[in-house]
Amino acid sequence: MKKLFVETYGCQMNVRDSEEVTGLLLERGYALTESQAEADVILFNTCAVREHAEHRVWSNVGALRQMKRERPELIIGVMGCMAKSQRETIFKRMPHVDFISGPAQLYEVPELIETIYEERKPMAAIQDKRRAEFQNISYHASGVSALVTVMEGCDKVCSYCVVPYTRGPEVSRPADEVIGEVERLAGQGYREVMLLGQNVNSYGRRWPSEPLGVRPSTGSGRTEPNESEKTGGSRMNFSNLLKRVNAVKGIERIRFITSHPWDAAEELFAAMRDLPRVCEHLHLPVQSGSDKVLERMRRGYTAQAYLEKLELLRELVPAVAVTTDVIVGFPGETEEDFESTVRLVEEAQFDSAFIFSYSPRPFAAASRWVDDVPQEVKGRRLQTLLKLQEGIARSKDETFTGQEVEVLVEEPGAGRTRTNRKVYFEAEGVKPGELVKVRVEGVRGHSLMGKVMPCLKTVGVRS
Ligand code: SAH
Ligand code: SF4
Ligand code: F3S
């Protein structure tokens, strides 16, 4: 039996893609291994979003040179976003790589491996085609929460970002297909689904059969549903999709990422308020608090507009946790611009934030501009924001001490709140998949610690 080792970088879309390829190979008789040394096939599913993400791939793929020399029959594949954006350089710098394949060529990977076994020559399965295939996958890494793709690609033009290039234009997955997969997952015992897309709030703007340019963004989250969408047909916008997922029996929690502040609007917030299974968590990347920087980033909103959205969201969904992404050191970012970001972070009071130092990315518009903020200034700004946000997150976490929270158990002794906080708890006999009430007794790092309230167990064991 051939053994497969898969290493995944980047976002949840990539995690799901890795699950998809793994499932296809398991169906062909492969077995998963945790050890590269005993693998027949080693796959790297790569990310190109920041320089740092790529460095790790270069060094980890590079480290296999010797192993490949000793075991020339080993197959090494580089898949995903970096495989697409660095296709010229990968074979050149890494001659021990057997194949590269972009995110749109996922379903061709098993064939490709077969062909390599037959012909033993390096291959590239990169063609610039649009990814519009969606398949139901048979392999999920966890038995409690499953990733479900609802759309591929991105139609935004954020000037720092490589994703529209690596993932191609936006295509939504027909709602009936999404619901079919969620129902199957519920039948297999999954309790939570995370709906995935680079910009889920523009769900429904373009379907696989439609040519590019049809139904472009109308802004502010208003994609008018057609008659069939309104009545729950196979086409609908994201809020309507949430309604349908909310109705699937057995799924207790619904999450989704990512939302773009331009497209996330009142209709979504109202759906979060009204649909009991949709968790009170919104990841809403702000990127900067300076209007000048936001404009050059081509984000389409001002700091004030962002804060107003946040206010409306918190009014409609008071318990909501809001998380964000911020980039420091974007080209031309002055001390004053940075101070605006500091003020926004203070004002917004995010539950947590990913803070990144800008790096130029191939194909992104900003990569043609001078990367003029010195490394040490980027570093200082990063540290300032990290420290500020650390304090905010801690005081937010502390508010849970003494409270009872609903936890979906993911592994023995650990689970998550609806607001996506990790909780460790003491309890005997609580199984993954159960929903329990936990009394929070304290905070450790970014996690809550507590005890399960035995009499308050809300839902039974999953099958
Ligand atoms: N579609 C999502 C995720 C994009 S990538 C979204 O729109 O938010 C995740 C994060 O990486 C972005 O939100 C941004 O903060 C960061 N990022 C993207 N390109 C970057 C770059 N060139 N340098 C630094 N951070 C970047
Ligand atoms: Fe990149 Fe912007 Fe698309 Fe997100 S919305 S993937 S940041 S281009
Ligand atoms: Fe990275 Fe591609 Fe995701 S660039 S963040 S793996 S879409």
Indicate how many domains the architecture comprises.
3
Query: How many helix segments?
Result: 15
Low-confidence stretches: 214-223, 227-235
- Taking the alpha carbons of the first and last residues, their distance comes to 30 Å
**CATH topology (fold) name of the largest domain:** pyruvate-formate lyase- activating enzyme
Sheet with most strands: 6 strands, parallel
Radius of gyration: 23 Å
**Ions, cofactors, ligands: which are bound?**
S-adenosyl-L-homocysteine, iron/sulfur cluster, FE3-S4 cluster
Strand content: 15-25%
CATH superfamily of the largest domain: tm_1862 like domain
Question: How many β-strand runs?
Answer: 19
Strand order of the largest sheet: 2-1-3-4-5-6
**Outline:** globular
CATH class of the largest domain: Alpha Beta
- The average pLDDT is 90
CATH architecture of the largest domain: Alpha-Beta Horseshoe
What is the chains' assembly state? single chain
Query: What is the helical fraction, as a range of percent?
Result: 25-40%
Class computed from helices, strands and strand pairing: alpha/beta
Walk me through what this model shows.
This protein has three domains: 3-120, 3-Layer(aba) Sandwich (Rossmann fold), CATH 3.40.50.12160; 143-398, Alpha-Beta Horseshoe (pyruvate-formate lyase- activating enzyme); 404-452. It is of the alpha/beta class and 463 residues long. The protein has a six-stranded parallel beta sheet, with helices on both faces. It has a five-stranded mixed barrel with strand order 15-16-17-19-18. It has helices at 12-27, 51-62, 65-70, 81-85, 87-93, 109-119, 163-167, 175-187, 227-230, 238-246, 266-274, 291-297, 303-316, 335-348, 375-398, and strands at residues 3-8, 31-32, 41-46, 75-80, 99-101, 123-124, 145-149, 151-152, 171-172, 192-196, 253-257, 281-283, 321-328, 352-357, 404-411, 414-416, 422-426, 435-444, 447-452. The structure holds S-adenosyl-L-homocysteine, iron/sulfur cluster and FE3-S4 cluster. Residues 154, 156, 158, 161, 163-164, 198-199, 260 line the site of iron/sulfur cluster (SF4). Iron/sulfur cluster (SF4) is lined by residues 154, 156, 158, 161, 163-164, 198-199, 260.
